[in-house]
Write a structure and sequence with these properties.
- There is one protein chain.
- By secondary structure, this protein is of the alpha+beta class.
- 34% of the residues lie in helices and 28% in strands.
- The protein has twelve helices and 22 strands.
- Helix 3 packs antiparallel against helix 6, helix 6 packs antiparallel against helix 8 and helix 8 runs antiparallel to helix 9.
- It starts with a helix and ends with a helix.
- 26% of the residues are buried.
- It is found in: Membrane.
- Keywords: Cytochrome c-type biogenesis, Membrane, Transmembrane, Transmembrane helix.
- Its main location: membrane.
Length: 588
Protein backbone atom coordinates (compact mmCIF):
# COMPACT_ATOMS: atom_id res chain seq x y z
CA UNK A 1 0.00 0.00 0.00
CA UNK A 2 1.36 3.40 -0.92
CA UNK A 3 1.96 6.20 1.59
CA UNK A 4 -0.94 8.18 0.14
CA UNK A 5 -3.35 5.27 0.61
CA UNK A 6 -2.23 4.85 4.20
CA UNK A 7 -2.80 8.55 4.96
CA UNK A 8 -6.26 8.52 3.39
CA UNK A 9 -7.22 5.43 5.40
CA UNK A 10 -6.05 7.06 8.64
CA UNK A 11 -7.98 10.28 7.95
CA UNK A 12 -11.11 8.28 7.22
CA UNK A 13 -10.77 6.33 10.47
CA UNK A 14 -10.26 9.55 12.45
CA UNK A 15 -13.35 11.05 10.86
CA UNK A 16 -15.45 8.03 11.85
CA UNK A 17 -14.08 8.07 15.39
CA UNK A 18 -14.87 11.80 15.79
CA UNK A 19 -18.38 11.49 14.43
CA UNK A 20 -19.70 9.74 17.51
CA UNK A 21 -18.12 12.30 19.85
CA UNK A 22 -19.54 15.23 17.90
CA UNK A 23 -22.98 13.61 17.92
CA UNK A 24 -22.81 13.30 21.72
CA UNK A 25 -22.72 17.09 22.14
CA UNK A 26 -24.52 18.19 18.99
CA UNK A 27 -27.90 18.68 20.66
CA UNK A 28 -26.66 20.59 23.72
CA UNK A 29 -27.93 23.78 22.07
CA UNK A 30 -31.37 24.65 20.76
CA UNK A 31 -29.98 27.18 18.28
CA UNK A 32 -31.45 26.59 14.80
CA UNK A 33 -29.05 24.77 12.51
CA UNK A 34 -28.11 26.65 9.40
CA UNK A 35 -28.33 24.80 6.15
CA UNK A 36 -26.35 25.73 3.10
CA UNK A 37 -28.61 26.64 0.23
CA UNK A 38 -27.08 26.92 -3.20
CA UNK A 39 -27.50 30.38 -4.70
CA UNK A 40 -28.42 29.29 -8.24
CA UNK A 41 -31.20 26.94 -6.97
CA UNK A 42 -33.01 29.61 -4.91
CA UNK A 43 -36.48 30.44 -6.11
CA UNK A 44 -39.05 32.77 -4.62
CA UNK A 45 -39.81 30.33 -1.81
CA UNK A 46 -36.10 29.75 -1.24
CA UNK A 47 -35.39 33.46 -0.93
CA UNK A 48 -38.32 33.84 1.49
CA UNK A 49 -36.96 31.00 3.61
CA UNK A 50 -33.47 32.50 3.50
CA UNK A 51 -34.78 35.91 4.58
CA UNK A 52 -36.81 34.32 7.39
CA UNK A 53 -33.75 32.38 8.64
CA UNK A 54 -31.72 35.58 8.68
CA UNK A 55 -34.45 37.59 10.40
CA UNK A 56 -35.00 34.99 13.10
CA UNK A 57 -31.31 34.40 13.79
CA UNK A 58 -29.85 35.56 17.09
CA UNK A 59 -27.28 37.66 15.26
CA UNK A 60 -29.93 39.76 13.49
CA UNK A 61 -31.98 40.07 16.70
CA UNK A 62 -28.97 41.55 18.50
CA UNK A 63 -28.31 43.91 15.58
CA UNK A 64 -31.93 45.10 15.65
CA UNK A 65 -31.77 45.56 19.42
CA UNK A 66 -28.64 47.67 18.99
CA UNK A 67 -30.30 49.73 16.23
CA UNK A 68 -33.33 50.30 18.46
CA UNK A 69 -31.08 51.60 21.24
CA UNK A 70 -29.15 53.73 18.75
CA UNK A 71 -32.40 55.10 17.29
CA UNK A 72 -33.54 56.27 20.72
CA UNK A 73 -30.49 58.54 21.07
CA UNK A 74 -31.90 61.37 18.85
CA UNK A 75 -35.11 61.22 20.86
CA UNK A 76 -33.10 62.08 23.98
CA UNK A 77 -30.95 64.81 22.42
CA UNK A 78 -33.44 66.54 20.11
CA UNK A 79 -36.69 68.12 21.44
CA UNK A 80 -39.71 65.97 20.65
CA UNK A 81 -43.08 67.32 19.57
CA UNK A 82 -44.93 64.83 21.74
CA UNK A 83 -43.05 66.04 24.84
CA UNK A 84 -42.69 69.82 24.44
CA UNK A 85 -43.88 71.69 21.35
CA UNK A 86 -42.48 75.00 22.62
CA UNK A 87 -38.96 73.60 22.81
CA UNK A 88 -39.34 72.21 19.30
CA UNK A 89 -40.44 75.64 18.05
CA UNK A 90 -37.48 77.32 19.78
CA UNK A 91 -35.10 74.73 18.32
CA UNK A 92 -36.44 75.34 14.81
CA UNK A 93 -35.94 79.09 15.17
CA UNK A 94 -32.39 78.65 16.43
CA UNK A 95 -31.39 76.07 13.80
CA UNK A 96 -32.96 77.09 10.52
CA UNK A 97 -30.43 75.09 8.45
CA UNK A 98 -30.81 71.81 10.33
CA UNK A 99 -34.59 72.01 10.69
CA UNK A 100 -35.48 70.84 7.12
CA UNK A 101 -33.07 67.91 7.43
CA UNK A 102 -34.44 66.91 10.82
CA UNK A 103 -38.00 67.15 9.55
CA UNK A 104 -37.19 64.89 6.58
CA UNK A 105 -35.66 62.34 8.94
CA UNK A 106 -38.58 62.70 11.39
CA UNK A 107 -36.15 63.50 14.21
CA UNK A 108 -38.71 65.70 15.98
CA UNK A 109 -41.02 62.64 16.25
CA UNK A 110 -38.53 59.81 16.67
CA UNK A 111 -40.72 57.32 18.50
CA UNK A 112 -43.55 57.59 15.99
CA UNK A 113 -41.31 57.79 12.89
CA UNK A 114 -41.45 55.24 10.10
CA UNK A 115 -37.86 54.06 10.54
CA UNK A 116 -38.12 53.62 14.32
CA UNK A 117 -41.41 51.75 13.96
CA UNK A 118 -39.85 49.50 11.30
CA UNK A 119 -36.96 48.58 13.61
CA UNK A 120 -39.40 48.00 16.45
CA UNK A 121 -41.67 45.70 14.43
CA UNK A 122 -38.76 43.77 12.87
CA UNK A 123 -37.26 43.18 16.31
CA UNK A 124 -40.63 42.00 17.58
CA UNK A 125 -41.02 39.53 14.68
CA UNK A 126 -37.39 38.42 14.97
CA UNK A 127 -37.72 37.58 18.65
CA UNK A 128 -40.95 35.65 18.13
CA UNK A 129 -39.53 33.75 15.17
CA UNK A 130 -36.44 32.95 17.21
CA UNK A 131 -38.21 31.85 20.37
CA UNK A 132 -41.01 29.65 19.00
CA UNK A 133 -38.88 26.97 17.24
CA UNK A 134 -36.28 26.97 20.03
CA UNK A 135 -39.03 26.48 22.60
CA UNK A 136 -40.41 23.42 20.83
CA UNK A 137 -36.91 22.02 20.39
CA UNK A 138 -36.20 22.63 24.08
CA UNK A 139 -39.44 20.86 25.06
CA UNK A 140 -38.34 17.92 22.91
CA UNK A 141 -35.01 17.80 24.74
CA UNK A 142 -36.77 17.82 28.10
CA UNK A 143 -38.89 14.87 27.05
CA UNK A 144 -35.89 12.98 25.63
CA UNK A 145 -33.33 10.85 27.46
CA UNK A 146 -29.63 11.59 27.91
CA UNK A 147 -27.71 10.19 24.92
CA UNK A 148 -25.54 7.14 25.21
CA UNK A 149 -21.82 7.30 25.89
CA UNK A 150 -19.38 7.87 23.01
CA UNK A 151 -17.09 4.99 22.11
CA UNK A 152 -13.96 6.86 23.19
CA UNK A 153 -14.45 8.79 26.39
CA UNK A 154 -10.76 9.74 26.36
CA UNK A 155 -11.47 12.26 23.60
CA UNK A 156 -13.74 14.36 25.83
CA UNK A 157 -12.34 17.48 27.58
CA UNK A 158 -12.81 16.15 31.16
CA UNK A 159 -11.80 12.54 31.77
CA UNK A 160 -10.67 10.22 34.57
CA UNK A 161 -10.29 6.44 35.03
CA UNK A 162 -9.35 3.86 37.66
CA UNK A 163 -9.63 0.13 38.35
CA UNK A 164 -11.73 -1.40 41.09
CA UNK A 165 -12.47 -4.88 42.38
CA UNK A 166 -16.23 -4.16 42.44
CA UNK A 167 -18.37 -5.77 39.75
CA UNK A 168 -19.28 -3.58 36.72
CA UNK A 169 -22.98 -3.89 37.58
CA UNK A 170 -22.35 -2.62 41.10
CA UNK A 171 -20.31 0.30 39.79
CA UNK A 172 -23.00 1.28 37.31
CA UNK A 173 -25.71 1.07 39.98
CA UNK A 174 -23.61 3.20 42.35
CA UNK A 175 -22.92 5.75 39.58
CA UNK A 176 -26.64 5.97 38.78
CA UNK A 177 -27.44 6.62 42.44
CA UNK A 178 -24.68 9.25 42.82
CA UNK A 179 -25.71 11.15 39.70
CA UNK A 180 -29.40 11.15 40.58
CA UNK A 181 -28.47 12.33 44.06
CA UNK A 182 -26.76 15.32 42.43
CA UNK A 183 -29.99 16.11 40.52
CA UNK A 184 -28.76 14.79 37.17
CA UNK A 185 -31.17 13.20 34.75
CA UNK A 186 -29.53 9.81 34.49
CA UNK A 187 -30.16 6.40 32.92
CA UNK A 188 -28.24 3.17 32.43
CA UNK A 189 -27.55 2.33 28.78
CA UNK A 190 -25.45 -0.64 27.79
CA UNK A 191 -22.16 -0.76 29.68
CA UNK A 192 -22.41 2.89 30.80
CA UNK A 193 -24.52 5.41 32.70
CA UNK A 194 -25.48 8.65 30.89
CA UNK A 195 -26.50 11.77 32.79
CA UNK A 196 -27.35 15.36 31.90
CA UNK A 197 -27.84 18.58 33.85
CA UNK A 198 -28.17 22.33 33.30
CA UNK A 199 -31.45 22.59 31.40
CA UNK A 200 -32.17 25.87 33.20
CA UNK A 201 -29.47 27.50 31.07
CA UNK A 202 -31.58 27.22 27.93
CA UNK A 203 -34.72 27.98 29.95
CA UNK A 204 -33.03 31.20 31.13
CA UNK A 205 -32.08 32.02 27.56
CA UNK A 206 -35.66 31.57 26.39
CA UNK A 207 -36.96 33.52 29.39
CA UNK A 208 -34.65 36.41 28.55
CA UNK A 209 -35.91 36.68 24.99
CA UNK A 210 -39.52 36.23 26.06
CA UNK A 211 -39.00 39.05 28.58
CA UNK A 212 -37.75 41.28 25.75
CA UNK A 213 -41.02 40.68 23.91
CA UNK A 214 -42.96 41.51 27.08
CA UNK A 215 -41.01 44.76 27.43
CA UNK A 216 -41.67 45.68 23.79
CA UNK A 217 -45.39 45.03 24.27
CA UNK A 218 -45.38 47.07 27.48
CA UNK A 219 -43.60 49.93 25.73
CA UNK A 220 -46.12 49.95 22.87
CA UNK A 221 -49.06 49.65 25.24
CA UNK A 222 -47.77 52.48 27.40
CA UNK A 223 -47.25 54.77 24.42
CA UNK A 224 -50.71 54.13 23.00
CA UNK A 225 -52.75 54.38 26.20
CA UNK A 226 -50.73 56.73 28.39
CA UNK A 227 -51.79 60.14 29.67
CA UNK A 228 -49.77 62.82 31.39
CA UNK A 229 -50.69 66.27 32.59
CA UNK A 230 -49.31 69.01 34.80
CA UNK A 231 -51.06 71.32 37.26
CA UNK A 232 -49.79 74.14 39.46
CA UNK A 233 -51.79 74.40 42.69
CA UNK A 234 -51.51 77.20 45.26
CA UNK A 235 -51.99 76.44 48.96
CA UNK A 236 -55.68 76.31 49.72
CA UNK A 237 -56.68 75.67 46.09
CA UNK A 238 -57.77 72.37 44.61
CA UNK A 239 -57.67 70.27 41.46
CA UNK A 240 -60.18 67.97 39.81
CA UNK A 241 -58.96 65.33 37.38
CA UNK A 242 -60.74 66.62 34.29
CA UNK A 243 -59.19 67.74 31.03
CA UNK A 244 -60.09 71.44 31.50
CA UNK A 245 -58.27 71.58 34.85
CA UNK A 246 -54.83 70.79 33.46
CA UNK A 247 -52.23 73.44 32.63
CA UNK A 248 -50.82 71.08 30.00
CA UNK A 249 -51.91 67.63 28.92
CA UNK A 250 -50.77 65.02 26.43
CA UNK A 251 -51.81 61.43 25.83
CA UNK A 252 -51.37 58.44 23.57
CA UNK A 253 -53.30 58.01 20.36
CA UNK A 254 -55.61 55.37 21.85
CA UNK A 255 -56.32 57.16 25.13
CA UNK A 256 -59.84 58.43 25.74
CA UNK A 257 -60.77 61.33 28.01
CA UNK A 258 -63.36 59.14 29.74
CA UNK A 259 -60.48 56.95 30.97
CA UNK A 260 -59.28 59.66 33.37
CA UNK A 261 -59.42 58.42 36.96
CA UNK A 262 -62.20 60.25 38.87
CA UNK A 263 -60.63 62.06 41.85
CA UNK A 264 -59.88 65.53 43.21
CA UNK A 265 -57.53 66.96 45.82
CA UNK A 266 -56.76 70.18 47.69
CA UNK A 267 -53.26 71.39 48.59
CA UNK A 268 -53.50 72.00 52.32
CA UNK A 269 -49.91 73.10 52.81
CA UNK A 270 -46.43 72.82 51.42
CA UNK A 271 -43.39 72.35 53.64
CA UNK A 272 -39.86 73.04 52.46
CA UNK A 273 -36.72 73.27 54.57
CA UNK A 274 -33.20 73.82 53.30
CA UNK A 275 -29.61 73.31 54.41
CA UNK A 276 -28.45 76.59 55.96
CA UNK A 277 -24.66 76.24 55.82
CA UNK A 278 -21.81 74.30 54.31
CA UNK A 279 -21.16 73.30 50.72
CA UNK A 280 -24.76 72.07 50.35
CA UNK A 281 -26.32 75.33 51.49
CA UNK A 282 -29.76 75.73 49.95
CA UNK A 283 -30.24 72.01 49.26
CA UNK A 284 -33.80 70.91 50.12
CA UNK A 285 -34.10 68.75 53.22
CA UNK A 286 -37.87 68.61 53.52
CA UNK A 287 -39.95 68.79 50.36
CA UNK A 288 -43.52 67.59 50.82
CA UNK A 289 -47.10 68.55 50.06
CA UNK A 290 -49.96 67.74 52.42
CA UNK A 291 -53.18 67.14 50.48
CA UNK A 292 -56.79 66.18 51.10
CA UNK A 293 -58.21 64.04 48.31
CA UNK A 294 -61.46 62.36 47.35
CA UNK A 295 -61.85 59.27 45.18
CA UNK A 296 -64.88 57.94 43.37
CA UNK A 297 -66.32 56.62 46.63
CA UNK A 298 -66.63 60.22 47.92
CA UNK A 299 -64.66 59.66 51.13
CA UNK A 300 -62.22 62.39 52.20
CA UNK A 301 -58.68 61.19 52.82
CA UNK A 302 -55.36 62.73 53.81
CA UNK A 303 -51.96 62.10 52.26
CA UNK A 304 -48.47 63.57 52.04
CA UNK A 305 -46.81 63.62 48.62
CA UNK A 306 -43.00 63.68 48.51
CA UNK A 307 -40.43 63.50 45.76
CA UNK A 308 -40.38 59.92 44.42
CA UNK A 309 -43.30 59.08 46.73
CA UNK A 310 -46.37 59.77 44.58
CA UNK A 311 -50.00 59.54 45.60
CA UNK A 312 -51.54 56.50 43.89
CA UNK A 313 -55.24 56.69 43.08
CA UNK A 314 -56.46 53.83 40.95
CA UNK A 315 -54.34 53.70 37.81
CA UNK A 316 -53.13 57.29 38.28
CA UNK A 317 -50.08 58.56 40.13
CA UNK A 318 -49.74 62.13 41.39
CA UNK A 319 -46.09 63.23 41.53
CA UNK A 320 -44.68 66.32 43.24
CA UNK A 321 -42.28 67.87 40.74
CA UNK A 322 -41.76 71.57 41.60
CA UNK A 323 -42.35 74.32 44.14
CA UNK A 324 -42.44 78.11 44.28
CA UNK A 325 -43.99 81.17 45.90
CA UNK A 326 -47.26 82.96 45.25
CA UNK A 327 -47.23 86.47 46.82
CA UNK A 328 -50.67 87.84 47.68
CA UNK A 329 -51.32 91.26 46.15
CA UNK A 330 -54.22 93.74 46.26
CA UNK A 331 -54.87 96.18 43.42
CA UNK A 332 -57.16 99.21 43.89
CA UNK A 333 -58.34 101.82 41.42
CA UNK A 334 -58.17 105.59 41.89
CA UNK A 335 -61.36 105.59 44.00
CA UNK A 336 -59.94 102.97 46.37
CA UNK A 337 -62.08 100.14 45.04
CA UNK A 338 -60.43 96.73 45.12
CA UNK A 339 -60.29 95.37 41.60
CA UNK A 340 -57.98 92.41 42.25
CA UNK A 341 -56.96 90.43 45.31
CA UNK A 342 -55.29 87.04 45.28
CA UNK A 343 -52.14 84.96 45.27
CA UNK A 344 -50.04 85.27 42.11
CA UNK A 345 -47.83 82.23 41.34
CA UNK A 346 -44.35 83.20 40.16
CA UNK A 347 -41.99 80.85 38.35
CA UNK A 348 -38.46 80.19 39.72
CA UNK A 349 -35.48 80.97 37.51
CA UNK A 350 -32.69 79.62 39.76
CA UNK A 351 -32.10 77.20 42.63
CA UNK A 352 -32.63 79.95 45.22
CA UNK A 353 -36.17 80.46 43.83
CA UNK A 354 -35.62 83.89 42.37
CA UNK A 355 -38.97 84.15 40.57
CA UNK A 356 -40.67 86.13 37.83
CA UNK A 357 -44.26 86.46 36.71
CA UNK A 358 -47.09 88.82 35.97
CA UNK A 359 -50.08 90.34 37.75
CA UNK A 360 -52.98 90.90 35.36
CA UNK A 361 -56.09 92.94 36.14
CA UNK A 362 -58.47 92.21 33.27
CA UNK A 363 -61.86 93.33 34.56
CA UNK A 364 -63.33 95.94 36.90
CA UNK A 365 -60.69 98.66 36.59
CA UNK A 366 -61.45 102.22 35.40
CA UNK A 367 -58.96 105.04 35.06
CA UNK A 368 -59.46 108.49 36.48
CA UNK A 369 -61.55 109.42 33.41
CA UNK A 370 -63.91 106.55 34.14
CA UNK A 371 -62.80 104.56 31.08
CA UNK A 372 -62.37 100.82 31.21
CA UNK A 373 -58.76 99.83 31.11
CA UNK A 374 -56.60 96.87 31.97
CA UNK A 375 -53.59 96.81 34.26
CA UNK A 376 -50.51 94.62 34.16
CA UNK A 377 -47.49 94.35 36.43
CA UNK A 378 -44.20 92.60 35.82
CA UNK A 379 -43.14 90.99 39.08
CA UNK A 380 -39.65 89.98 40.20
CA UNK A 381 -39.57 88.19 43.55
CA UNK A 382 -36.74 87.04 45.81
CA UNK A 383 -37.41 85.09 49.03
CA UNK A 384 -34.09 86.24 50.55
CA UNK A 385 -32.91 89.70 49.47
CA UNK A 386 -29.21 90.55 49.81
CA UNK A 387 -29.99 94.19 50.63
CA UNK A 388 -29.87 97.49 48.80
CA UNK A 389 -26.50 98.18 47.20
CA UNK A 390 -25.44 94.52 47.44
CA UNK A 391 -25.36 93.83 43.72
CA UNK A 392 -28.09 92.45 41.45
CA UNK A 393 -31.46 91.55 42.87
CA UNK A 394 -31.20 87.76 43.08
CA UNK A 395 -32.18 85.56 45.96
CA UNK A 396 -29.47 84.41 48.35
CA UNK A 397 -31.43 81.51 49.87
CA UNK A 398 -34.60 79.53 48.96
CA UNK A 399 -36.43 80.16 52.24
CA UNK A 400 -38.51 83.25 53.10
CA UNK A 401 -35.83 84.99 55.17
CA UNK A 402 -36.07 88.48 53.62
CA UNK A 403 -38.76 88.52 50.88
CA UNK A 404 -38.76 91.43 48.45
CA UNK A 405 -40.76 91.98 45.26
CA UNK A 406 -40.06 94.50 42.51
CA UNK A 407 -43.05 95.63 40.43
CA UNK A 408 -43.25 97.45 37.12
CA UNK A 409 -46.76 98.72 36.16
CA UNK A 410 -48.49 99.08 32.77
CA UNK A 411 -51.95 100.20 31.65
CA UNK A 412 -53.79 99.69 28.40
CA UNK A 413 -54.87 96.41 26.71
CA UNK A 414 -53.48 93.06 27.80
CA UNK A 415 -54.44 91.51 24.46
CA UNK A 416 -56.54 88.79 26.05
CA UNK A 417 -59.58 89.76 23.97
CA UNK A 418 -57.87 88.84 20.68
CA UNK A 419 -58.80 85.17 21.07
CA UNK A 420 -55.16 84.04 20.98
CA UNK A 421 -53.86 82.02 23.95
CA UNK A 422 -51.46 83.78 26.31
CA UNK A 423 -48.91 82.67 28.83
CA UNK A 424 -50.30 83.57 32.26
CA UNK A 425 -46.77 84.13 33.57
CA UNK A 426 -45.76 86.63 30.88
CA UNK A 427 -47.03 90.12 30.14
CA UNK A 428 -47.69 91.27 26.56
CA UNK A 429 -46.95 95.01 26.61
CA UNK A 430 -47.44 95.66 22.87
CA UNK A 431 -50.64 97.62 23.53
CA UNK A 432 -49.79 98.95 26.96
CA UNK A 433 -48.11 102.08 28.39
CA UNK A 434 -45.68 101.89 31.27
CA UNK A 435 -46.27 103.86 34.45
CA UNK A 436 -43.49 106.28 35.39
CA UNK A 437 -43.02 106.50 39.12
CA UNK A 438 -41.71 109.40 41.17
CA UNK A 439 -40.05 107.01 43.61
CA UNK A 440 -38.06 103.86 43.17
CA UNK A 441 -36.12 103.48 39.92
CA UNK A 442 -38.58 105.57 37.95
CA UNK A 443 -40.21 102.53 36.33
CA UNK A 444 -40.23 99.95 39.16
CA UNK A 445 -40.33 99.84 42.92
CA UNK A 446 -39.12 97.31 45.44
CA UNK A 447 -41.66 96.31 48.07
CA UNK A 448 -41.44 94.32 51.25
CA UNK A 449 -44.51 92.54 52.66
CA UNK A 450 -47.07 95.12 53.82
CA UNK A 451 -45.85 97.97 51.55
CA UNK A 452 -47.89 99.69 48.82
CA UNK A 453 -46.83 101.16 45.49
CA UNK A 454 -48.97 104.17 44.51
CA UNK A 455 -49.55 104.54 40.80
CA UNK A 456 -49.09 108.07 39.29
CA UNK A 457 -51.90 110.44 38.31
CA UNK A 458 -54.38 108.82 40.69
CA UNK A 459 -54.38 105.54 38.74
CA UNK A 460 -54.64 103.49 41.93
CA UNK A 461 -52.25 101.34 43.92
CA UNK A 462 -50.92 97.81 44.39
CA UNK A 463 -50.10 96.34 47.80
CA UNK A 464 -47.71 93.47 48.56
CA UNK A 465 -49.58 91.72 51.37
CA UNK A 466 -47.80 90.10 54.28
CA UNK A 467 -49.39 86.77 53.43
CA UNK A 468 -47.07 84.86 51.07
CA UNK A 469 -48.41 81.53 49.96
CA UNK A 470 -46.51 78.65 48.40
CA UNK A 471 -47.46 76.58 45.41
CA UNK A 472 -46.61 73.06 44.26
CA UNK A 473 -46.58 71.67 40.76
CA UNK A 474 -47.97 68.17 40.27
CA UNK A 475 -47.76 65.70 37.44
CA UNK A 476 -50.68 63.30 37.07
CA UNK A 477 -49.84 60.32 34.89
CA UNK A 478 -51.39 57.05 33.81
CA UNK A 479 -48.89 54.53 32.45
CA UNK A 480 -50.71 51.23 31.95
CA UNK A 481 -47.62 49.36 30.77
CA UNK A 482 -45.29 50.19 33.68
CA UNK A 483 -46.08 47.10 35.75
CA UNK A 484 -45.71 44.84 32.72
CA UNK A 485 -42.43 46.51 31.77
CA UNK A 486 -41.09 46.05 35.31
CA UNK A 487 -42.06 42.37 35.29
CA UNK A 488 -40.36 41.97 31.91
CA UNK A 489 -37.19 43.67 33.16
CA UNK A 490 -37.01 41.46 36.25
CA UNK A 491 -37.62 38.35 34.14
CA UNK A 492 -34.95 39.45 31.66
CA UNK A 493 -32.38 39.85 34.44
CA UNK A 494 -33.30 36.45 35.90
CA UNK A 495 -33.13 34.76 32.50
CA UNK A 496 -29.82 36.42 31.63
CA UNK A 497 -28.37 35.36 34.98
CA UNK A 498 -29.40 31.76 34.37
CA UNK A 499 -28.04 31.69 30.82
CA UNK A 500 -24.69 33.12 31.95
CA UNK A 501 -24.02 31.19 35.14
CA UNK A 502 -25.67 27.80 34.53
CA UNK A 503 -23.73 25.37 32.37
CA UNK A 504 -25.34 22.65 30.32
CA UNK A 505 -23.22 19.51 30.72
CA UNK A 506 -23.29 15.73 30.30
CA UNK A 507 -21.55 13.05 32.32
CA UNK A 508 -20.86 9.42 31.29
CA UNK A 509 -19.65 6.59 33.51
CA UNK A 510 -18.53 3.35 31.84
CA UNK A 511 -17.66 0.21 33.83
CA UNK A 512 -16.37 -2.92 32.01
CA UNK A 513 -14.40 -6.00 33.03
CA UNK A 514 -10.69 -5.68 32.28
CA UNK A 515 -8.31 -8.38 31.04
CA UNK A 516 -6.84 -8.80 34.50
CA UNK A 517 -10.27 -9.45 36.04
CA UNK A 518 -10.71 -6.06 37.66
CA UNK A 519 -13.33 -3.50 36.60
CA UNK A 520 -12.16 -0.54 34.53
CA UNK A 521 -14.15 2.60 35.42
CA UNK A 522 -14.12 5.57 33.03
CA UNK A 523 -15.78 8.94 33.72
CA UNK A 524 -15.96 11.79 31.24
CA UNK A 525 -17.80 15.10 30.95
CA UNK A 526 -18.82 17.39 28.10
CA UNK A 527 -20.12 20.95 28.44
CA UNK A 528 -21.82 23.27 25.99
CA UNK A 529 -18.97 25.71 26.47
CA UNK A 530 -15.54 25.44 28.02
CA UNK A 531 -15.58 25.90 31.77
CA UNK A 532 -13.10 25.26 34.58
CA UNK A 533 -15.96 24.02 36.74
CA UNK A 534 -16.61 20.91 34.60
CA UNK A 535 -13.34 19.12 35.54
CA UNK A 536 -13.90 20.14 39.17
CA UNK A 537 -17.42 18.70 39.14
CA UNK A 538 -16.21 15.52 37.45
CA UNK A 539 -13.50 15.13 40.11
CA UNK A 540 -16.09 15.62 42.85
CA UNK A 541 -18.33 12.95 41.30
CA UNK A 542 -15.37 10.59 40.96
CA UNK A 543 -14.52 11.02 44.64
CA UNK A 544 -18.14 10.28 45.56
CA UNK A 545 -18.14 7.16 43.38
CA UNK A 546 -14.85 5.83 44.76
CA UNK A 547 -16.49 5.52 48.16
CA UNK A 548 -18.51 2.63 46.74
CA UNK A 549 -16.04 1.51 44.06
CA UNK A 550 -12.61 2.03 45.65
CA UNK A 551 -9.53 1.75 43.44
CA UNK A 552 -7.93 -1.71 43.38
CA UNK A 553 -4.44 -2.00 44.95
CA UNK A 554 -1.60 -1.71 42.48
CA UNK A 555 0.30 -4.98 41.76
CA UNK A 556 3.71 -5.30 43.53
CA UNK A 557 6.56 -4.51 41.17
CA UNK A 558 9.66 -6.89 41.02
CA UNK A 559 12.68 -5.81 43.03
CA UNK A 560 15.11 -3.87 40.94
CA UNK A 561 18.82 -4.82 40.74
CA UNK A 562 21.38 -2.18 41.54
CA UNK A 563 23.68 -1.86 38.48
CA UNK A 564 26.70 -1.04 40.63
CA UNK A 565 26.25 -4.15 42.78
CA UNK A 566 25.78 -6.31 39.70
CA UNK A 567 29.14 -5.21 38.29
CA UNK A 568 31.14 -5.72 41.54
CA UNK A 569 29.84 -9.22 42.38
CA UNK A 570 30.50 -12.17 39.98
CA UNK A 571 27.41 -13.70 38.61
CA UNK A 572 26.58 -17.25 39.58
CA UNK A 573 27.24 -19.64 36.70
CA UNK A 574 24.41 -21.36 34.98
CA UNK A 575 24.01 -25.08 35.78
CA UNK A 576 25.41 -26.15 32.41
CA UNK A 577 28.51 -24.01 32.87
CA UNK A 578 29.06 -25.40 36.39
CA UNK A 579 29.05 -29.01 35.03
CA UNK A 580 31.60 -28.09 32.34
CA UNK A 581 33.95 -26.56 34.89
CA UNK A 582 33.76 -29.68 37.08
CA UNK A 583 34.63 -31.96 34.10
CA UNK A 584 37.70 -29.91 33.23
CA UNK A 585 38.97 -30.12 36.87
CA UNK A 586 38.61 -33.90 36.91
CA UNK A 587 40.71 -34.32 33.74
CA UNK A 588 43.52 -32.28 35.26
Amino acid sequence: MSKTDTTDTTDTADAHRGAGDEAAGADLSTAPREETVGGPTLGVVGWIRWFWRQLTSMRVALILLFLLSLGAVPGSLIPQTSADELKVADFKKAHETLTPVYEKLQLFDVYSSVWFSAIYILLFVSLIGCIVPRTWQFVGQLRGLPPGAPKRLTRLPAYTTWRTEADPEEVRAAALAVLKGRRFRARATGDAVAAEKGYLREAGNLLFHLALIVMLVAFAWGQLFKSEGGKLVVEGDGFSNTLTQYDDFKSGSQFGVDELEPFSFTLDSFTGTYEKSGPQRGTPRTFEAAVSYTEADGKDKKAVIRVNEPLEIGDSKVYLIAHGYAPVVTVKDGQGKTVFHGAVPLLPIDNNITSTGAVKVMDGYRNKKGEKEQLGFKAFFVPTFAGAGQGSMFSQFPALDFPVMALTGYHGSLGVDSGLPQNVYQLDTAKMTQFTLDEGTGVAKRLVPGETMTLPDGAGSITFEKDIKEWASFQVSQQPGNGLALAGAVAAIAGLTGSLFIQRRRIWVRAVRGEDGTTVVEMAGLGRSESARLPEELADLAVALTDQAPPAPEPTAPESVDPDTAESEPAEPEPAEAVADASEGAEK
